[in-house]
Protein backbone atom coordinates (compact mmCIF):
# COMPACT_ATOMS: atom_id res chain seq x y z
CA UNK A 1 0.00 0.00 0.00
CA UNK A 2 1.70 3.16 -1.12
CA UNK A 3 -0.80 5.98 -0.89
CA UNK A 4 -3.40 6.38 1.83
CA UNK A 5 -5.50 9.49 2.45
CA UNK A 6 -8.01 9.49 5.27
CA UNK A 7 -10.31 11.70 7.31
CA UNK A 8 -10.56 11.00 11.03
CA UNK A 9 -13.37 12.41 13.19
CA UNK A 10 -13.18 10.59 16.56
CA UNK A 11 -15.80 12.83 18.19
CA UNK A 12 -18.48 12.08 15.57
CA UNK A 13 -21.77 10.98 17.09
CA UNK A 14 -23.94 10.79 13.97
CA UNK A 15 -22.10 10.50 10.67
CA UNK A 16 -18.64 9.68 9.32
CA UNK A 17 -16.08 8.67 11.91
CA UNK A 18 -13.44 7.52 9.43
CA UNK A 19 -13.17 7.83 5.64
CA UNK A 20 -10.27 6.37 3.66
CA UNK A 21 -9.09 6.00 0.08
CA UNK A 22 -5.96 3.95 -0.57
CA UNK A 23 -3.86 2.55 -3.40
CA UNK A 24 -1.82 -0.61 -3.03
CA UNK A 25 1.36 -0.65 -5.12
CA UNK A 26 3.20 -3.93 -5.67
CA UNK A 27 5.16 -5.99 -8.17
CA UNK A 28 2.80 -7.61 -10.66
CA UNK A 29 4.43 -11.01 -10.16
CA UNK A 30 3.53 -11.08 -6.45
CA UNK A 31 0.31 -13.05 -6.07
CA UNK A 32 -2.43 -12.02 -3.69
CA UNK A 33 -6.07 -12.71 -2.94
CA UNK A 34 -8.58 -9.85 -3.19
CA UNK A 35 -10.51 -8.62 -0.17
CA UNK A 36 -12.51 -11.41 1.51
CA UNK A 37 -13.45 -12.82 4.90
CA UNK A 38 -10.56 -15.10 5.83
CA UNK A 39 -11.50 -18.75 6.28
CA UNK A 40 -8.99 -19.28 9.10
CA UNK A 41 -10.04 -16.02 10.84
CA UNK A 42 -13.70 -15.52 9.92
CA UNK A 43 -14.02 -12.11 11.59
CA UNK A 44 -11.15 -10.64 9.50
CA UNK A 45 -11.83 -8.85 6.20
CA UNK A 46 -8.77 -8.15 4.03
CA UNK A 47 -6.84 -9.06 0.94
CA UNK A 48 -4.05 -11.56 1.45
CA UNK A 49 -0.46 -11.60 0.24
CA UNK A 50 0.22 -15.17 -0.88
CA UNK A 51 3.99 -14.67 -0.75
CA UNK A 52 4.41 -13.28 2.77
CA UNK A 53 1.08 -14.36 4.24
CA UNK A 54 0.09 -10.98 5.64
CA UNK A 55 -1.97 -8.14 4.24
CA UNK A 56 -1.73 -4.44 3.42
CA UNK A 57 -5.11 -3.26 4.74
CA UNK A 58 -7.80 -4.98 6.76
CA UNK A 59 -10.50 -4.72 9.40
CA UNK A 60 -12.46 -6.91 11.79
CA UNK A 61 -16.06 -7.30 12.87
CA UNK A 62 -15.22 -5.90 16.31
CA UNK A 63 -13.93 -2.65 14.79
CA UNK A 64 -10.18 -3.05 14.57
CA UNK A 65 -8.35 -1.72 11.53
CA UNK A 66 -4.81 -1.53 10.18
CA UNK A 67 -3.01 -0.45 7.02
CA UNK A 68 0.63 -0.42 5.94
CA UNK A 69 2.85 1.42 3.50
CA UNK A 70 6.50 0.75 2.76
CA UNK A 71 9.01 3.49 3.54
CA UNK A 72 11.10 4.18 0.44
CA UNK A 73 14.77 3.78 1.31
CA UNK A 74 16.18 1.56 -1.46
CA UNK A 75 19.76 1.53 -0.20
CA UNK A 76 18.65 0.30 3.25
CA UNK A 77 16.53 -2.64 2.05
CA UNK A 78 17.54 -5.99 3.55
CA UNK A 79 16.36 -9.04 1.57
CA UNK A 80 16.32 -11.21 4.71
CA UNK A 81 14.03 -8.90 6.70
CA UNK A 82 10.67 -10.37 7.85
CA UNK A 83 7.60 -9.55 5.80
CA UNK A 84 5.90 -6.34 6.87
CA UNK A 85 2.36 -7.43 6.00
CA UNK A 86 2.17 -9.57 9.14
CA UNK A 87 2.30 -6.36 11.19
CA UNK A 88 -1.23 -5.70 9.91
CA UNK A 89 -2.56 -9.24 10.23
CA UNK A 90 -1.12 -9.78 13.72
CA UNK A 91 -3.15 -6.84 15.03
CA UNK A 92 -6.30 -8.05 13.34
CA UNK A 93 -5.88 -11.68 14.41
CA UNK A 94 -4.96 -11.16 18.05
CA UNK A 95 -7.40 -11.44 20.93
CA UNK A 96 -9.15 -8.14 21.76
CA UNK A 97 -7.85 -6.17 24.70
CA UNK A 98 -4.80 -4.15 23.65
CA UNK A 99 -5.25 -0.61 22.42
CA UNK A 100 -3.80 0.60 19.10
CA UNK A 101 -1.09 2.46 20.97
CA UNK A 102 -0.26 -0.63 23.07
CA UNK A 103 0.21 -2.63 19.89
CA UNK A 104 2.38 -0.03 18.17
CA UNK A 105 4.65 0.17 21.21
CA UNK A 106 5.05 -3.60 20.98
CA UNK A 107 5.88 -3.30 17.27
CA UNK A 108 8.37 -0.51 17.97
CA UNK A 109 10.40 -2.80 20.25
CA UNK A 110 11.36 -4.89 17.21
CA UNK A 111 10.83 -2.27 14.51
CA UNK A 112 14.48 -2.30 13.45
CA UNK A 113 14.14 -5.90 12.26
CA UNK A 114 11.93 -4.81 9.36
CA UNK A 115 12.55 -2.83 6.23
CA UNK A 116 11.02 0.63 6.44
CA UNK A 117 7.28 0.93 7.02
CA UNK A 118 4.41 3.13 8.17
CA UNK A 119 1.75 1.36 10.20
CA UNK A 120 -1.70 2.83 10.83
CA UNK A 121 -3.66 0.98 13.53
CA UNK A 122 -7.15 1.73 14.77
CA UNK A 123 -9.98 0.59 16.97
CA UNK A 124 -13.14 2.30 15.84
CA UNK A 125 -15.19 1.17 18.84
CA UNK A 126 -12.60 2.81 21.11
CA UNK A 127 -12.44 5.83 18.76
CA UNK A 128 -8.65 5.50 18.62
CA UNK A 129 -6.30 5.70 15.63
CA UNK A 130 -2.50 5.57 15.95
CA UNK A 131 0.55 5.72 13.68
CA UNK A 132 4.14 4.53 13.83
CA UNK A 133 7.03 4.62 11.36
CA UNK A 134 10.18 2.63 12.06
CA UNK A 135 12.23 5.15 10.05
CA UNK A 136 11.14 8.11 12.17
CA UNK A 137 12.48 9.19 15.58
CA UNK A 138 8.88 9.86 16.62
CA UNK A 139 7.37 7.36 19.03
CA UNK A 140 4.01 5.74 18.24
CA UNK A 141 1.28 8.35 18.63
CA UNK A 142 -2.49 8.71 18.61
CA UNK A 143 -3.75 10.90 15.76
CA UNK A 144 -5.82 13.99 16.30
CA UNK A 145 -8.85 14.60 14.13
CA UNK A 146 -8.31 15.89 10.63
CA UNK A 147 -7.46 14.84 7.09
CA UNK A 148 -4.12 13.09 6.72
CA UNK A 149 -2.05 11.17 4.20
CA UNK A 150 0.69 8.55 4.14
CA UNK A 151 2.76 7.56 1.14
CA UNK A 152 6.30 6.14 1.30
CA UNK A 153 7.67 8.64 3.79
CA UNK A 154 6.46 9.69 7.25
CA UNK A 155 2.89 10.81 7.90
CA UNK A 156 1.83 13.89 5.90
CA UNK A 157 5.18 14.30 4.10
CA UNK A 158 4.20 16.75 1.32
CA UNK A 159 4.88 14.64 -1.75
CA UNK A 160 2.81 15.96 -4.67
CA UNK A 161 0.45 12.98 -4.94
CA UNK A 162 -0.23 12.99 -1.20
CA UNK A 163 -0.91 16.72 -1.07
CA UNK A 164 -3.19 16.49 -4.11
CA UNK A 165 -5.28 13.52 -2.99
CA UNK A 166 -5.50 14.66 0.63
CA UNK A 167 -6.93 17.97 -0.58
CA UNK A 168 -9.27 16.26 -3.03
CA UNK A 169 -10.59 14.00 -0.26
CA UNK A 170 -11.14 16.98 2.04
CA UNK A 171 -13.00 18.87 -0.69
CA UNK A 172 -15.15 15.84 -1.54
CA UNK A 173 -16.17 15.36 2.08
CA UNK A 174 -16.92 19.04 2.50
CA UNK A 175 -19.30 18.82 -0.46
CA UNK A 176 -20.79 15.51 0.70
CA UNK A 177 -19.69 13.91 4.00
CA UNK A 178 -20.92 10.54 2.69
CA UNK A 179 -19.45 10.85 -0.80
CA UNK A 180 -19.97 7.64 -2.81
CA UNK A 181 -17.16 5.12 -2.34
CA UNK A 182 -16.96 4.62 -6.11
CA UNK A 183 -16.12 8.28 -6.47
CA UNK A 184 -13.32 7.99 -3.91
CA UNK A 185 -11.89 5.07 -5.86
CA UNK A 186 -12.06 7.02 -9.12
CA UNK A 187 -10.28 9.90 -7.39
CA UNK A 188 -7.31 7.64 -6.60
CA UNK A 189 -6.96 6.18 -10.09
CA UNK A 190 -5.08 9.21 -11.37
CA UNK A 191 -2.09 8.38 -13.59
CA UNK A 192 -0.70 11.91 -13.91
CA UNK A 193 2.93 12.28 -12.80
CA UNK A 194 4.40 15.23 -10.93
CA UNK A 195 6.69 17.82 -12.48
CA UNK A 196 10.37 17.01 -12.17
CA UNK A 197 10.98 20.04 -9.93
CA UNK A 198 8.39 18.67 -7.45
CA UNK A 199 9.84 15.19 -7.14
CA UNK A 200 11.38 13.98 -3.88
CA UNK A 201 14.86 12.47 -3.93
CA UNK A 202 14.55 9.01 -2.40
CA UNK A 203 17.53 7.22 -3.92
CA UNK A 204 15.97 5.90 -7.13
CA UNK A 205 16.59 7.12 -10.68
CA UNK A 206 14.81 10.20 -11.99
CA UNK A 207 12.83 8.05 -14.42
CA UNK A 208 11.65 5.78 -11.60
CA UNK A 209 10.98 8.72 -9.28
CA UNK A 210 8.83 10.27 -12.00
CA UNK A 211 6.80 7.10 -12.56
CA UNK A 212 6.28 6.60 -8.82
CA UNK A 213 4.96 10.16 -8.42
CA UNK A 214 1.62 9.24 -10.00
CA UNK A 215 -1.14 8.40 -7.51
CA UNK A 216 -1.99 5.39 -9.71
CA UNK A 217 1.27 3.85 -10.92
CA UNK A 218 1.51 2.10 -14.28
CA UNK A 219 4.80 0.36 -15.07
CA UNK A 220 5.60 -2.88 -16.91
CA UNK A 221 6.49 -4.91 -13.80
CA UNK A 222 5.24 -2.75 -10.93
CA UNK A 223 2.21 -0.63 -10.28
CA UNK A 224 -0.99 0.05 -8.40
CA UNK A 225 -2.62 -3.33 -7.91
CA UNK A 226 -5.83 -2.16 -6.28
CA UNK A 227 -7.76 0.71 -4.72
CA UNK A 228 -9.81 0.58 -1.53
CA UNK A 229 -12.42 3.04 -0.26
CA UNK A 230 -13.73 2.74 3.27
CA UNK A 231 -16.22 4.56 5.46
CA UNK A 232 -17.13 4.05 9.12
CA UNK A 233 -20.34 5.72 10.28
CA UNK A 234 -21.18 6.49 13.89
CA UNK A 235 -24.77 6.07 15.05
CA UNK A 236 -24.45 7.19 18.64
CA UNK A 237 -22.49 4.37 20.25
CA UNK A 238 -23.03 2.02 17.31
CA UNK A 239 -20.88 1.90 14.18
CA UNK A 240 -21.33 0.59 10.65
CA UNK A 241 -18.71 -0.10 7.99
CA UNK A 242 -18.88 0.16 4.21
CA UNK A 243 -15.93 -0.72 1.99
CA UNK A 244 -15.24 -1.36 -1.69
CA UNK A 245 -12.08 -2.70 -3.32
CA UNK A 246 -11.32 -2.43 -7.04
CA UNK A 247 -8.40 -4.65 -8.00
CA UNK A 248 -6.52 -6.08 -10.96
CA UNK A 249 -7.10 -9.71 -9.92
CA UNK A 250 -10.37 -11.54 -9.32
CA UNK A 251 -8.59 -14.27 -7.39
CA UNK A 252 -7.45 -16.24 -10.44
CA UNK A 253 -4.03 -14.48 -10.47
CA UNK A 254 -4.53 -13.39 -14.05
CA UNK A 255 -3.68 -9.71 -13.94
CA UNK A 256 -5.88 -7.23 -15.79
CA UNK A 257 -4.56 -3.69 -16.08
CA UNK A 258 -6.03 -1.36 -15.11
CA UNK A 259 -8.07 -3.55 -12.80
CA UNK A 260 -11.86 -3.39 -12.76
CA UNK A 261 -12.73 -6.29 -10.47
CA UNK A 262 -14.81 -5.01 -7.53
CA UNK A 263 -15.92 -6.38 -4.20
CA UNK A 264 -18.04 -4.50 -1.68
CA UNK A 265 -18.84 -5.30 1.95
CA UNK A 266 -20.99 -3.76 4.64
CA UNK A 267 -21.33 -4.79 8.29
CA UNK A 268 -22.10 -3.45 11.74
CA UNK A 269 -19.34 -3.45 14.34
CA UNK A 270 -20.02 -6.07 16.99
CA UNK A 271 -19.68 -4.88 20.57
From TrEMBL:
<dbReference type="InterPro" id="IPR008551">
    <property type="entry name" value="TANGO2"/>
</dbReference>
<dbReference type="Pfam" id="PF05742">
    <property type="entry name" value="TANGO2"/>
</dbReference>
<protein>
    <recommendedName>
        <fullName>NRDE family protein</fullName>
    </recommendedName>
</protein>
Amino acid sequence: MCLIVFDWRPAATDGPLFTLAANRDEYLRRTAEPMHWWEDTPALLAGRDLTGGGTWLGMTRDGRFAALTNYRAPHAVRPDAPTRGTLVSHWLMREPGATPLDYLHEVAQSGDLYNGFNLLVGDWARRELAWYCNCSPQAPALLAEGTHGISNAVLDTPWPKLVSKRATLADALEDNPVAPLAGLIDMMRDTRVARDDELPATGVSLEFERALSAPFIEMPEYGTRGTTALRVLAHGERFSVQTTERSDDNGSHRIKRPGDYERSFAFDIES
